[in-house]
Amino acid sequence: MAGSRSAGRAAVLSVRPWKRRSEPELEPEPEPEPPLLCTSPLSHGAGSDSGVSDSEESIFSGLEDSGSDSSEGDDEGDEKGKDGAGSDEGPGGTEKTTEEQAQADTAYPRTEMASVLTADEYAEDSSDEEDIRNTVGNVPLEWYEDFPHVGYDLDGRCIYKPLRTQDELDQFLDKMDNPDYWRTVQDPMTGRDLRLTDEQVALVRRLQSGQFGDTGFDPYEPAVDFFSGDVMIHPVTNRPADKRSFIPSLVEKEKVSRMVHAIKMGWIQPRRPQDPTPSFYDLWAQEDPNAVLGRHKMHVPAPKLALPGHAESYNPPPEYLLGEEERAAWEQQEPSERRLSFLPRKFPSLRAVPAYGRFIQERFERCLDLYLCPRQRKMRVNVDPEDLIPKLPRPRDLQPFPTCQALVYRGHSDLVRCLSVSPGGQWLASGSDDGSLRLWEVATARCVRTVSVGGVVRSVAWNPNPTVCLVAVAVEDSVLLLNPALGDRLVAGGTDQLLSAFVPPEEPALQPARWLEASEEERQVGLRLRVCHGKPVTQVTWHGRGDYLAVVLATQGHTQVLIHQLSRRRSQSPFRRSHGQVQRVAFHPSRPFLLVASQRSIRLYHLLRQELTKKLMPNCKWVSSLAVHPAGDNVICGSYDSKLVWFDLDLSTKPYRVLRHHKKALRAVAFHPRYPLFASGSDDGSVIVCHGMVYNDLLQNPLLVPVKVLKGHTLTRDLGVLDITFHPTQPWVFSSGADGTVRLFS
């Protein structure tokens, strides 16, 4: 940039003529460096004292005009260089005339210009616009913060920053010692400290105070009026008047005719004089006196103060005076809960009564009562509360359903965790923490057989296929398949033949569970197969056809749910990843669906397509139980936060109805296979039976009506009913509790 700038100066100098010096042997003394912030040449004003002649000043003024960075040099220098002639104004204010330029051209040959150019023409440059040595141009100085220089001069040499080794203490001492410290500024172009002159300081102060920079400028000088206010005799111009000034206008005639026509037609109304007197009108003049919201009917009188009683007397009866205990209780109560807002006191005479201390407070409260009193009565809807209750059928119209306790099955020594009824409804299996599985006869409450399994029975499930007599029992990390040999002997014998007909494959496949045959001693008890998993089993459930068995393991990962096939003795894990801790699983009664209930959600999987079909959100903290309607379109689930949630799979993934009838956590829920009944058992020791009618019409929502609360179990270790199940053919419900009993409600 510096090179281009110097080249521009040389181009201008090569064209511009030069003036001969009056004394060639006399070299002008270099002027001191002008302040960079000074915008007006103070030494070159009126009367220069630099000691050089006019001719010398003209020479240097030509150099200054050709190479200066001022606005005049940039704007006018190019024009003068192109024209080859013009007037140049030097520092002394002298101008070159045409004759002097002509003499300079004839007296000075072209060859002498080279000798002048070879000299240091910038040594005598007196530009006061800015320091011409730093030719960095329009470049941000922040770019030079990491460099030791701040720019370049015209010769391309670096302009180094001044060394600043002063710390804060030295700067403070300099500030105290230097009297010109307050007028010293730093030049951003060179980084040097400059001392402002008195004229520059005065200029800065004028600009800060909002005045003009030039002291000779008068902003309040009188304005010169070009036209006086006096009436002149002669016109300003002697132009003759136009013809249209004394001939009627046709345009105005057309406008007037239009206005006359509008007035005749009534489109334009004449302005009537306004009456200056204010008009008042009744705000409620148009009000219907027979309206319900009439003003006279909505009047609310100010509330009246209650009349003083005996307690406010200065000599109240003794029974109105408070004792020490009553006084302490009165002081501890909240002001809003106190029956009296003051303490009754007794004085011997009226003269001894002091001024009432709460007088101002009560007056203020009275003002608030008057100010905040509602001035309009709210229209209350006269609705019978009975109409707000949904119209539900009477429970006696929804019979049959269990109403009372019929039998109690006693025999377990510890809490009974699980129940299951045979497909025919004749036998009942129950598992307990005492390590035994008991088989009962439903009609007589007689214990037919007791099987010791050697551990806590977590779950028990009777095979729903009536042609197979088999019971699945979850004990610790194994699932035991028992043949109780109850009922028809042909069915029991056919079950053993079905299990013995299995032929193991030559190359056993890798499975997540091991199938083990029972020993002879175990076969005498009724055990036929043992499925070992390696993890504790929490639930076992059968498919509707009786060939598949689903198991829930108390472990982490994708192997929480396993499906076993009885006929082929195969086990498989249907999931690749886990979606939380699985609580319950259930097969769909008619379609190839598997419902998996985790802590916060219920997922519906299609087993053939191996994909997720729906995800139900029960909005519960912890799901504890799950049951599927026999038709397969509705699902209920219980939770530990005392909620029973009903889902309609055809309606939405959100709950259709949430029932909160229990006071404690729900442990089990169940549907009746034939009747429109469902029940729930809770830790509060009760079983609530509800009527749940599902209609074939898809436009009609299910009807849910609680019909009976059954109680009989006693709470043990804060546990009540642990499991419930319905009889397959009768409207009976079985419940097992923490008190070690099984109860039948019919």
TrEMBL record:
Mapped WD repeat ranges: 409-450, 659-689
UniProt domain BOP1 N-terminal: residue ranges: 144-402
Domain of life: Eukaryota
GO terms of biological process kind: cell population proliferation; cleavage in ITS2 between 5.8S rRNA and LSU-rRNA of tricistronic rRNA transcript (SSU-rRNA, 5.8S rRNA, LSU-rRNA); regulation of cell cycle; regulation of signal transduction by p53 class mediator; ribosomal large subunit assembly
GO molecular function, one term: ribonucleoprotein complex binding
Region (Disordered): 1-112
Cellular location(s): Nucleus, Nucleolus; Nucleus, Nucleoplasm
Transmembrane annotation, as ranges: none
Keywords: Nucleus, Repeat, Ribosome biogenesis, rRNA processing, WD repeat
GO cellular component terms given for this protein: chromosome; nucleoplasm; PeBoW complex; preribosome, large subunit precursor
HAMAP family the UniProt entry points to: BOP1
UniProt subunit comment: Component of the PeBoW complex, composed of BOP1, PES1 and WDR12. The complex is held together by BOP1, which interacts with PES1 via its N-terminal domain and with WDR12 via a high-affinity interaction between the seven-bladed beta-propeller domains of the 2 proteins. The NOP7 complex associates with the 66S pre-ribosome. The PeBoW complex associates with DDX27, BOP1 interacts directly with DDX27.
Function: Component of the PeBoW complex, which is required for maturation of 28S and 5.8S ribosomal RNAs and formation of the 60S ribosome.
PANTHER family: RIBOSOME BIOGENESIS PROTEIN BOP1, RIBOSOME BIOGENESIS PROTEIN BOP1 BLOCK OF PROLIFERATION 1 PROTEIN
Family indicated by similarity: Belongs to the WD repeat BOP1/ERB1 family.
Protein name (Swiss-Prot/TrEMBL): Ribosome biogenesis protein BOP1
Gene from which the chain derives: BOP1
